[in-house]
Structures are given as C-alpha cells and as structure tokens.
TrEMBL record:
This is DMT family transporter. Keywords: Membrane, Transmembrane, Transmembrane helix. Pfam families: EamA (PF00892). The chain crosses the membrane at residues 12-30, 36-55, 67-88, 94-114, 121-138, 144-164, 176-196, 208-229, 241-263, 269-288. Residues 13-138, 147-285 form the EamA domain. One of its GO terms (cellular component) is membrane. Signal peptide: none annotated.
C-alpha cells in the first residue's frame, strides 16, 4: 500500500506533463488565430479559477497595488502564449517544443540580472552547447527558421515569467490559485490591449467554429485550470526539484504525440539529435543547480554553529 501511495503522486505528475505536452497538439488542431486563442484560453481559465475560489471560500483580496502588478505579470505569460501558438503555426509542434525546452536555461542565464549574482561558468558552457543544438536543428530544417525564432522568443518570455512568478510565490505561498486567477485576467487585458490595433484582430475573435470551441474549452479547463490546481496539490508530496526535473519531459511527450498523430511531424535524425542535446543540457543544468543548493544548505548549519562557538 505504501508503494502505491508513493507511486500515485508520480503518476499524477506525469499525467499533468502529458496534458502540458498536449497543449502543443491543441495549438495545431485549433484554427483560431493565436491572439484570439490566447484571449479565449486565459479568459475561460480565469472564470474557472474564479469559480473554484468562490466555491472553496477562498479570498480574492490582495491589495490594489498587487492586483495591478499581478495583471502585468499575467500579461507576460499572455505574450508567451501568443508567441507559442504562433510558432506552431509557423513551424510545427516538434520544432516549437524543442525550442521551448530552452526556457529553463534562459531562466538560469537571466537570474544573475534579477538576483544580482554572478553568472556561473557551467551556465555559459551549457548556453553554448544549447546554441549548437539549435544550429543542428535549424541547419537541417531551413523552412522552419521563422518558427524557430518565434519559439525561442516564446521561451525567453516564459523564462522571464517564471522568474517574476517565483517572487509572487515567495510572497503568497498559500495563495497560488489566486495569483493565477489575477494573472489570467491580466493576460486577457494585456494581449487585447497590445494586439487590438493589429489587422484582423476583431475578425480573429469571430473565427471560432464548434471544433475550435471544444478544443479551447479543453485547453482552458483541463490543460490550464485543472493542471494549475493539481500541481499545487502535488507539491505536498513531491519536492520542487523532482517536479521541475520531470517537467523537462514535456517536449518529449509532445513530440511523441505529434509524430503519432501527424505524419509530417516525424522529423529528421539531425532534428532529434539537436533536441536530445538541448534536453540533456537542461536536465544536467537543473541537477547541478540542485546539487549546489543542497551543498549550500548543508554548509549553513555548520557556519551557524561555528559563529555560536566563537561567541
């Protein structure tokens, strides 16, 4: 029974990662333009999370200043999703997900700017190796260059969002659903404000048939709202490192599903080599950072004891 209890959170985690990967499949399946798709996705998610909070009697209060900042944070993830869905339209699911896996490394390279720390040597080396992986992919898939650039932009924006969001989770560790609620509202507002002046924006909002509506509903309710709430629950049983390390499998699951569902998603050997290089570096970087944090945590009690001994 104990083994089953331990296995359940891992199975739930991988189900969530599978659902995350399926987001890319839906991005190809749904014909609604990326801006409209993002607005509908985030708007419906906001409604779902708001209903969940109301039914659970959770507080919506966070202060007006924080509300404004959370709305702006949501705008960042909104822009990420517009770029993400655009990349899928420009290239395909496999290329987009391979490029998106660079997000964790982008975050490592951006952290020194946000947290005023030195850039670590292994992060620079890993960054160069990832660039090599990208060149291997782009060199063999010239027709996808536009999609590769857009997907890398989406990955960069996602990394910025993850760093911003980490600060919110430190400030409000028990209010993660509330954070997501306001961020989804912010995504709707910011994406609408940024893209409303562009040609075809209003027409795009009306380009939703029954097939697209069902896809968007699944995307909002299952791929975003359910996974958000369930992921919070899983942190009670799994360490953040375990969760983040396993989430690196999202591009793998997405590429496997894409290849199974769409014959044109079966890429060349060079593509999979480049993708494997990128994924390996991302996983190794996560492992090294975790090892460094564990060693740092072990040193702290020793240093504290030494100070007390000196006193």
């Amino acid at each position: 029974m104990q083994k089953n209890n331990k296995a359940r959170p891992y199975l739930s985690l991988h189900l969530i990662i599978l659902i995350f990967g399926f987001t890319g499949i839906l991005g190809r399946y749904i014909d609604t333009p990326p801006t409209a798709l993002t607005i509908y996705r985030t708007g419906l998610t906001c409604v779902c999370l708001g209903a969940f909070m109301w039914l659970r009697g959770m507080s919506f209060r966070v202060g007006w200043r924080n509300v404004v900042l959370l709305l702006l944070s949501g705008g960042v993830i909104g822009v990420h999703w517009v770029l993400f869905f655009s990349a899928i339209k420009q290239a395909n699911v496999s290329v987009t997900m391979a490029m998106l896996s660079t997000g964790a490394l982008f975050a490592s390279l951006l952290e020194p700017l946000f947290y005023h720390r030195r850039l670590r040597a292994h992060e620079v080396v890993f960054g160069l190796i990832v660039v090599a992986g990208i060149f291997i992919i782009s060199g063999q898939n010239a027709e996808y260059h536009g999609g590769i650039v857009t997907a890398l932009a989406a990955s960069f924006v996602s990394a910025c969002y993850s760093i911003i969001n980490s600060k919110w989770f430190v400030r409000f560790p028990n209010d993660t659903v509330m954070i997501s609620f306001y961020e989804m509202a912010g995504a709707v507002v910011v994406v609408a404000a940024l893209f409303a002046p562009t040609e075809g924006f209003v027409q795009g909002l009306g380009q939703v048939n029954l097939k697209d509506a069902l896809g968007i509903l699944f995307l909002a309710v299952v791929c975003t709202s359910y996974t958000n709430v369930r992921m919070i629950q899983l942190f009670r049983y799994l360490s953040p490192f375990t969760v983040m390390l396993n989430i690196n499998l999202e591009p793998v699951y997405a590429m496997l599903m894409a290849a199974a569902l769409y014959p044109d998603e079966r890429m060349s050997g060079a593509f999979y080599l480049g993708a494997a290089i990128i994924l390996s570096v991302v996983v190794l970087n996560a492992w090294l950072n975790n090892l460094r944090e564990r060693r740092k945590a072990k040193r702290l009690p020793t240093q504290t004891q030494e100070r007390h001994g000196e006193g």
